[in-house]
Amino acid sequence: MTNSTIAYDPAPTAEQDAAPAPTEGAANRRSRGPGGRGRIRSLLKHLALILTGGVMIYPLLWMLASSLRPNDIIFREPGILLETFESANYTDGWTALSSPFSVYLFNSAVVVLGCIVGNLVSCSMAAYAFARLEFRFKKPAFALMLLTIMLPFHVVIVPQYIMFSQIGWVNTFWPLIVPKLLATDAFFVFLMVQFIRGIPRDMDEAARIDGAGHARIFGQIILPMMVPALATTTIFTFIWTWNDFFSALIYLTDPNMFTVPVALRAFVDATGESSWGSLFAMSIVSLLPVFIAFLVGQKFLVKGIATTGIK
Question: Which residues does the annotated region (Disordered) include (predicted)?
Answer without folding.
Answer: 1-37
